[in-house]
Structures are given as structure tokens and as C-alpha cells.
């Protein structure tokens, strides 16, 4: 399934993008004056192959998994919080439940690697294994398990797309997951662990020091090779990160745009972009997280965030908020009048800075 998805990912439709840009340039406004809204509209045209695309159904997918590196004292929250949060997601009372509802989006919750059995109604049970291994002492998972988790994401994307979803968004749940995310950034971005390791859930200096040591140990023990991205994912990644990377690849394979949430989701986007560089063209950066090195992560992937709200919750909250911006961009494309339609005098092209 992974190889099939990769083989299906093609380039953006340049003709549709050109037509969308021509339409935007004809509207009653100075050229480019709606900034990112125009960029998003053109990107959506390229993704879908339709110069005036529609969004009819939106879905946020939250992947949940636990991390063996929790044993190294890298988190202030107890590990059981991963499991305990699942019913709050399903019942719509967690942050992402509220914001997905606000955006008019469906919310899908997937157990891809929670450490304990999950039997909550409404949670999709696609567990690959009960949490990853401790990356400070060995690999997170086998390559086969990493591929299986990637394929959970691809399968989930395709199932939702088959049911009418035409805008996907990523979300995560997993105590200690900023640790493997930072390890992935350090490896793929060739960056100093000490420089990029942040405080996650606002951990104190002692826990931060544990986290830095754990990431450094993970890289030393596992020796991940950035030229082999699936192996890097297996060695220092996470199951929910793999699931989200698969979701992105699955969306790209079916020419459906996917909103990338915060730090963990961007780590998944980084993995997806290394497995298949073309997949980056199908990603939309939702927001810049309050996590210290999210800006580095976005730069390494090549994503531009729409929102700067100092959020750091994860769960898909930023990507849910950005759905309104994406829909707004298409409203402009469909509903704003051209100079000719509105009978408004056009600008003098000779006086426009080229």
C-alpha cells in the first residue's frame, strides 16, 4: 500500500493554477492584495486539478500513540493521559472537539499505538503495537512496524476520501511525543539537539535536561541515516507520527489537500516529505506553534504557516482553525466579482510594480 500511494503522487496541475491565478487577478482588488488567501486558492487548484475547487466535507484525523522514551523522565504528564484523553476527543469536549465542531469538520480518532488496550466506542482500533520502544536505548519499532503504521494512515485517508472528504487535517495525541519529533528534526535537519529541544508541556529545567540527553542517546544508539527515511522513522520516531505521515501520503496520492497542525504533525510532514518529496505540494501549513523549534521544523519541510497564535496544544487545533481560512480563500475565488462583472474600472497595468 505504501509503494502504491507513493507511485500515485504526481505534480500539481499547472494549467488549473494558471487559470485560478488569472481569475484572482481579474477580481475587484489590487493584484495579490489578499496575500495568503490567494496563495492557498491557487495551491488548491493545483492539488485538485480544478481551477475553481470546492470543499464539501472536512475531516480532522487524530492519531494516538505512546512512547517508551517516557521512561527517561522527559514529560511532566503521566503516560496514562494518552489513553484518558480519548473519550474527551470522541465526546467533543477536548480542544480539538470544540474547534472541529466550530469548523464544521468531522473528527476521527485512531489508536495506532496506545500503550494499553483501547475499547472506547468511536475510537478506530488500528493498533500496530502497544507503544514504541525507548528510543534512548534502542529503536522505536521495526521497519515493518513503521511501514504498517504508515499504511494505517494511508488506509484512513483513503477511507475518509471515499466517504466524501475533500480537506483533511492532522492531529496527534501521545505523551512524550515532542521527544521523538525533535529527534526526527535533528536527524533530517542536521541540527544540534541542544539548540532545538523545547519544553513541550512547559517542563522544568531538570526534565528538559533529561529530554536533551534522551534525544542525544537515541541518535547515538540508533545511528539513523537520513538517506533512509523509513528507517529513521522506525529508529527514532513514533507510531502516531508514522500514522500521520501515512495520512499525508494517502491524501497526496488522491489529490486531496491536507492541513498540517503543530510540532508533532509537522514532524510527520517532515517524514512524509522525505519518503516522497512531491507530497509536500499537497500540504498546507496551518499555524506556528509556541513550541521552541517548530519554526525550524516548518523551514526544513518548506511550509508557510497561516496563523501565529502561540498555540501549543496539538490535537489538530491549529489545523481546524485554519480550515476557515482555506474555505475563505475559495469563497473569494467563487463569489468575488471581477472588474467586468461589477462594472468597475480596472487598474492601470502600466502603473503597477512588476
Automatic annotation (TrEMBL):
GO molecular function: nicotinate-nucleotide-dimethylbenzimidazole phosphoribosyltransferase activity
Active site annotation, chain numbering: 315 (proton acceptor)
This protein's pathway: Nucleoside biosynthesis; alpha-ribazole biosynthesis; alpha-ribazole from 5,6-dimethylbenzimidazole: step 1/2
One of the Pfam families matching this protein, by short name: DBI_PRT
Chemical reaction(s) catalysed: 5,6-dimethylbenzimidazole + nicotinate beta-D-ribonucleotide = alpha-ribazole 5'-phosphate + nicotinate + H(+)
Family: Belongs to the CobT family.
Protein name: Nicotinate-nucleotide--dimethylbenzimidazole phosphoribosyltransferase
Species the sequence originates in: Desulfofarcimen acetoxidans (strain ATCC 49208 / DSM 771 / KCTC 5769 / VKM B-1644 / 5575) (Desulfotomaculum acetoxidans)
Lineage per the UniProt record: Bacteria, Bacillati, Bacillota, Clostridia, Eubacteriales
Amino acid at each position: 500500500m505504501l509503494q502504491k500511494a507513493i507511485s500515485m503522487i504526481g505534480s500539481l496541475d499547472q494549467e488549473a493554477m494558471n487559470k485560478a491565478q488569472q481569475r484572482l487577478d481579474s477580481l475587484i482588488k489590487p493584484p495579490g492584495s489578499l496575500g495568503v488567501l490567494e496563495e492557498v486558492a491557487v495551491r488548491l487548484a493545483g492539488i485538485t486539478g480544478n481551477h475553481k475547487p470546492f470543499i464539501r466535507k472536512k475531516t480532522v484525523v487524530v492519531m494516538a500513540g505512546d512512547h517508551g522514551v517516557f521512561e527517561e523522565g522527559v514529560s511532566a504528564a503521566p503516560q496514562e493521559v494518552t489513553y484518558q484523553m480519548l473519550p474527551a476527543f470522541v465526546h467533543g469536549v477536548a480542544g480539538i472537539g470544540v474547534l472541529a465542531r466550530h469548523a464544521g469538520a468531522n473528527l476521527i480518532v485512531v489508536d495506532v499505538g496506545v500503550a494499553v488496550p483501547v475499547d472506547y466506542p468511536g475510537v478506530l482500533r488500528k493498533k500496530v503495537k502497544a507503544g514504541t520502544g525507548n528510543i534512548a536505548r534502542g529503536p522505536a519499532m521495526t521497519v515493518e512496524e513503521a511501514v504498517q503504521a504508515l499504511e494505517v494512515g494511508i488506509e484512513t485517508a483513503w477511507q475518509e476520501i471515499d466517504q466524501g472528504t475533500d480537506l483533511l487535517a492532522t492531529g496527534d495525541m501521545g505523551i512524550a511525543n515532542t521527544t521523538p519529533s525533535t529527534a526526527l528534526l535533528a536527524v533530517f535537519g542536521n541540527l544540534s539537539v541542544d539548540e532545538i529541544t523545547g519544553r513541550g508541556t512547559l517542563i522544568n529545567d531538570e526534565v528538559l535536561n533529561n529530554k536533551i540527553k534522551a534525544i542525544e542517546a537515541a541518535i547515538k544508539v540508533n545511528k539513523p541515516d537520513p538517506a533512509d527515511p523509513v528507517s529513521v522513522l522506525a529508529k527514532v520516531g513514533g507510531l502516531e507520527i508514522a500514522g500521520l505521515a501515512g495520512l499525508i501520503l494517502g491524501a497526496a496520492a488522491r489529490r486531496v489537500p491536507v492541513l498540517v497542525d503543530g510540532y508533532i504533525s509537522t514532524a510527520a510532514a517532515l517524514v512524509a516529505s522525505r519518503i516522497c518529496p512531491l507530497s509536500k505540494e499537497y500540504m498546507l501549513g496551518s499555524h506556528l506553534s509556541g513550541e521552541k523549534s517548530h519554526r525550524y521544523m516548518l523551514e526544513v519541510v518548506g511550509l508557510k504557516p497561516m496563523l501565529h497564535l502561540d498555540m501549543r496544544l496539538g490535537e489538530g487545533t491549529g489545523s481546524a482553525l485554519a480550515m476557515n481560512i482555506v474555505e475563505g480563500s475559495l469563497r473569494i475565488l467563487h463569489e468575488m466579482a471581477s472588474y467586468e462583472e461589477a462594472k468597475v474600472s480596472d487598474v492601470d497595468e502600466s502603473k503597477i510594480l512588476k
